[in-house]
């Protein structure tokens, strides 16, 4: 009995090492998807039960199901194939794509399908044997993550897919999603009530660390505006009360997510006078008349 437990432990260790080896040389990594991948494989094996067919036979049965437009039946067969041939990246990718073709019966099933599609695509990517397979898996993964409204990982997956292989449809999807959910300017504020006023611009992602932002910010009347940055905010310092300023943020201002500001933006800012206030020096009292 002890020997059996030890043997199972060794097998588990080897399997974990194999998963780590797959992930070690891949550019896209997410712990949540890696955990989901482990759970999905176990779940699929449980759902499949005892399978007496070979992977080749299951593939033929799957093709026949597709010809009958039996997508749900094909999905079951793809799951059985994954249980028999877990290293087949193409089968995992086909499983992920099939999920997108099935009309969910309700919102709960829609959520379930999107989670399964993203996890299956992640497994396909991790087990892909070449750059072309990686690109295809990342494209499907990006689409699935976008359906789950996980914008940043969706954008990263689509960008990495395009780094591997340029595809017009994927490029269009990436550019549209980047415009809507990528690195962008969200808002700005003017701090007029401080002794030294400033205008601050808020972005959707953290700004590049230790970057010189002067080439990307133009303040009319000065060549080198005083700038400070912290996380998602960039501020133009040293403004004066009662003055008007024109500030231009130039395109390609850098972030930490391998995206730059997509287009320039100009702001005409007025720094109002400070609000009146009363301050007592030392101990003082206001007495009734």
TrEMBL record:
Q: Annotated Gene Ontology MF terms?
A: endopeptidase inhibitor activity
Kindly indicate where the leader peptide sits in this chain. Answer: 1-23
Q: Per UniProt, which keywords does this protein have? A: Signal
Q: Do the record's keywords include Protein transport?
A: no
Q: Which InterPro entries match?
A: YfhM-like
Tree of life domain: Bacteria
What name does this protein carry?
A: Alpha-2-macroglobulin family protein
């Amino acid at each position: 009995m002890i020997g059996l437990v030890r043997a199972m432990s060794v097998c588990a260790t080897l399997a974990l090492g194999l998963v780590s080896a797959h992930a070690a040389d891949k550019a896209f990594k997410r712990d949540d998807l890696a955990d989901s991948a482990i759970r999905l494989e176990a779940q699929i094996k449980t759902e499949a039960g005892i399978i007496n067919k070979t992977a080749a036979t299951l593939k033929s049965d799957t093709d026949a199901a597709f010809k009958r437009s039996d997508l749900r039946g094909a999905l079951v067969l793809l799951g059985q194939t994954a249980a028999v041939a877990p290293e087949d990246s193409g089968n995992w990718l086909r499983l992920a794509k099939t999920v997108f073709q099935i009309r969910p019966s309700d919102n709960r099933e829609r959520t379930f399908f999107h989670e399964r599609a993203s996890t299956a695509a992640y497994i396909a990517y991790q087990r892909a044997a070449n750059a072309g397979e990686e690109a295809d898996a990342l494209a499907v993964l990006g689409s699935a993550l976008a359906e789950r409204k996980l914008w940043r990982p969706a954008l990263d997956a689509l960008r990495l897919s395009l780094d591997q292989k340029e595809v017009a449809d994927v490029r269009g999807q990436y550019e549209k999603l980047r415009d809507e959910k990528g690195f962008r300017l969200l808002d700005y504020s003017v701090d007029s009530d401080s002794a030294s006023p400033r205008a601050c611009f808020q972005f959707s992602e953290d700004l590049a660390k230790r970057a010189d932002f002067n080439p990307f910010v133009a303040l009319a009347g000065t060549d080198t505006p005083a700038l400070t940055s912290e996380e998602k905010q960039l501020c133009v310092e040293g403004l004066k009360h009662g003055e008007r300023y024109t500030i231009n943020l130039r395109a390609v201002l850098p972030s930490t997510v391998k995206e730059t500001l997509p287009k320039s933006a100009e702001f005409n800012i007025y720094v109002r006078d400070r609000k009146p206030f009363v301050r007592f020096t030392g101990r003082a009292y206001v007495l009734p008349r």
